[in-house]
Amino acid sequence: MPSTKTVDLAAHPLTAWQGPLGLPDFAHIGDGDFSPVFDAALKAHEAEIEAIAGNKEAPTIENTLAALELGGEALDHVSSIFWCRAGAHTNEAIQALERDISPKMSRHFSAISMNERLFARIDDLYQRRESLKLDAETLRVLEKTWKGFVRSGARLDAEGKKRLAAISEELSSLGTTFGQNMLADERDWALFLDEADLAGLPDFLKSAMAEAAEMRGQKGRYAVTLSRSIYEPFTTFSERRDLREIAFRAFTMRGQNGGATDNTSVVREMLKLRAEKAGLLGYASFAALKLDDTMAKTPKAVHALLDPVWEKALEKAAADQTELQRLAAEAGSNEKFAAWDWRFYQEKLRAEKFAFDEAELKPYLQLDRIIDACFDVATKLFGLTFEENKGIAAWHPDARVFLVKNADGSERGLFLADYFARPSKRSGAWMSALKSGYRLGHGSKPVIYNIMNFAKPPAGEAALLSVDEAKTLFHEFGHALHGMLTDVTWPSVAGTSVSRDFVELPSQLYEHWLTVPAVLEKHALHVKTGKPMPKVLLDKMLAARTFGAGFATVEFTASALMDMAYHARPDAPAEPLRFEAETLEKLDMPDTIAMRHRTPHFGHVFAGEGYSAGYYSYMWSEVLDADAFAAFEETGDPFNPALAERLRKNIYAAGGSKDPEELYTAFRGKMPSPEAMMVKRGLV
Ligand SMILES: [Zn+2]
């Protein structure tokens, strides 16, 4: 039943934050509060938008752009708490609400971007932008806002708008179909095995396979499924070449098995519609449209990154294959080396070269000490300090609250962190903001949080992390710093509001400091003896990181190049799968490695817009972080103060206030080159 009670947004704990340190008063928020408060906040925002759009006065930055940016504060507040709860501490009531709120929000924001009177005011400012004598940040925000409207079709005539809306709707339903077909193919296929078929498989895999078989009604047997978490270890460890081949073929044919779940025609249709959409909006290709507001900007720039990496990756993979073939021959195999042999022999080689046990490292990586290490690095680089405020309630008793201070003791903002897994928390690790930091209007101090899923130890024992988990902690803390150090005027360019191919720079870069020897010596102390991690162990861990880079880089880059090949042309290929085969042939793709994602199951690109013409950005970010850390290495000091200040000012504090290329160049003195990334991956 919808609540008929009127909500006072100025007093409600979801929208008027009156808890300690300016946090929401979480203790007085009930699950039943969200729905009526959302409704009231949406209405309030609609009224604000109407007031801007219907303003009789001529448009000014103040009465239009600033009013637009500062509007919807109540909606921001209730949304940020709701999405925090939905991820970090959910229940059935919250989940039911999610299904209700998501479409409401998307209708609300699409109505704003389709508001013609509102766009007319933005457009008026935009056309006069030269004469307004704006500062650089304001000009950029105006341009970005204008572009956002235009990309939503604001400048099309009525017929064009109608067609764009139809295309978007159709693309979104095709994207959903694509994802569901992929899932159906993954769900419906299983290879049931018995004890005698399990040669070579480690225990963790056997138990996962036993559970998968039981879930499919075959208790007591073992199932190979097409979930990556079973497929990859199975083809890595199984001694049975015949079974590896069956699994490989099934995995690479997902979405291409004929019948109702075949994705071939879905892809064909999507590529056609994407090309049409780009044309309608005046772009040369769908990739040109998608890349327009990124750091890369053009397909040409993406190729300038991927092409040299591809060459090196092919060379490395060819050299690796020779070594793997030798191993296979030594093991008595006289079959032609095939794609289902690669992971298997690569694992044998890894075991031979880098025999070390993850379990040896764990006692050195105590959660509380690694948190200290994160803070310590932030103090050394940026002068920040962190004071925990125990006893302040957040969304769950495990969530911790830290007051963040600048070097001069002034208050910077709040950092909240919720480290342990529990059933009410979604898996994975992430950073988000309850509030972003900006100066416009009355200004706002950032309230940033990190969510992790580490196993909670029994009371009185220290939580221990794996190397990957410690890296994840640094990674998400890097995102958090991007939010906390933000120093901009306009909310829409605060913190992590940057392009997709730039947003992972602050996080991936921060990971590098985890393995700086001085940091490990101080913080990676054995849980029982208190002694630092031995150097040999550290060296082994670092050396193992580049192992298998030829294979990994070929399978990734092939998919990234395919994504560009599909989208950087003005039209769509008539037969996508034939186009896939031809493109691979042109690329000299080795037949012993499969693309990480083949077209009929390339979910990043076809199950929604997400990473379409954007799969490259994972590697783009890696180029940036490797090149940025190389800047510190070149000075011989991982905490070089002058460089750290340039890093703070241009990367962590600048948000999206300037073009990412300009920001990076201001930090580094030049644009990044893929060299450092190729060195880091062990390709050169
Ligand atoms: Zn990230």
Automatic annotation (TrEMBL):
Cofactor binding notes: Binds 1 zinc ion.
Keywords carried by this UniProt record: Hydrolase, Metal-binding, Metalloprotease, Protease, Zinc
Entries under CDD domains matching the protein: M3A_DCP
InterPro entries: M3A_DCP, MetalloPept_cat_dom_sf, Neurolysin/TOP_dom2, Pept_M3A_M3B, Pept_M3A_M3B_dom
Required cofactor(s): Zn(2+)
Family annotation (Pfam families): Peptidase_M3 (PF01432)
Keyword Zinc: yes
Domain of life: Bacteria
Keyword Hydrolase: yes
Every Peptidase M3A/M3B catalytic domain range: 238-679
SUPFAM superfamilies: Metalloproteases ('zincins'), catalytic domain (SSF55486)
Family under the similarity heading: Belongs to the peptidase M3 family.
Protein name, UniProt field: M3 family metallopeptidase
Organism, as annotated: Mesorhizobium opportunistum
Lineage, uppermost ranks: Bacteria, Pseudomonadati, Pseudomonadota, Alphaproteobacteria, Hyphomicrobiales
